Amino acid sequence: MNENLPPCPECSGVYAYEMGALLVCPECGHEWPASGEAAAEGEPAGAPVIKDAVGNVLADGDTVTVVKTLKVKGSPTGIKAGTKVRNIRLVNGVDGHDIDCKVDGFGPMQLKSSVVKKV
């Protein structure tokens, strides 16, 4: 237990650790900004707003649903429309892929915000 880190806001776990600009709870997997100042420093003043396929603003930790079936290299089946993806992270990815996430049955991958809808 680190004496300087706050407990998890979700489960009140005391074993939080730092991962970049975030704090992570190993007990429940919840991630949150280390502090208000650290979160503000991590995003530039003119940071682009990332919106889903219907225009809702996305944020880290949101749950989204895939709106159309996606092909996945190396997989005989793709990600079907309606698949829920939890705890997304917004990133400045390659080729327009601005969501970093884990998809059940496929593992970690990046998605485009234009193919998801906020739940």
Spatial strand sequence of the major β-sheet: 1-2-3
Specify the biggest β-sheet: 3 strands, antiparallel
**In percent, how much strand structure appears in the residues?**
15-25%
User: How would you spell out the order of helices and strands?
Assistant: EEEHEEEEEE
The total beta strand count reads 9
Shape: globular
Portion of residues in helices?
under 10%
The total count of helices amounts to 1
Average pLDDT value? 84
| Global structural class | mainly beta
Topology:
Elements: E1 17-19, E2 22-24, E3 31-33, H1 36-42, E4 64-66, E5 84-85, E6 89-90, E7 99-103, E8 107-111, E9 116-118
Antiparallel strand pairs: 1-2, 2-3, 4-5, 4-9, 6-7, 7-8
Features:
mainly beta, 3-stranded antiparallel β-sheet, 1 helix, 6% helix
Describe the structure.
With 119 residues, the protein is mainly β. Helices cover 6% and strands 24% of the residues. The chain contains one helix and nine strands. The chain has one helix spanning 36-42, and strands spanning 17-19, 22-24, 31-33, 64-66, 84-85, 89-90, 99-103, 107-111, 116-118. Strand 7 and strand 8 form a beta hairpin. Mean pLDDT is 84; it is low at 36-45.
Give the gist of this structure.
InterPro entries: YjdM, YjdM_C, YjdM_N. The chain has one helix at 36-42, and strands spanning 17-19, 22-24, 31-33, 64-66, 84-85, 89-90, 99-103, 107-111, 116-118.
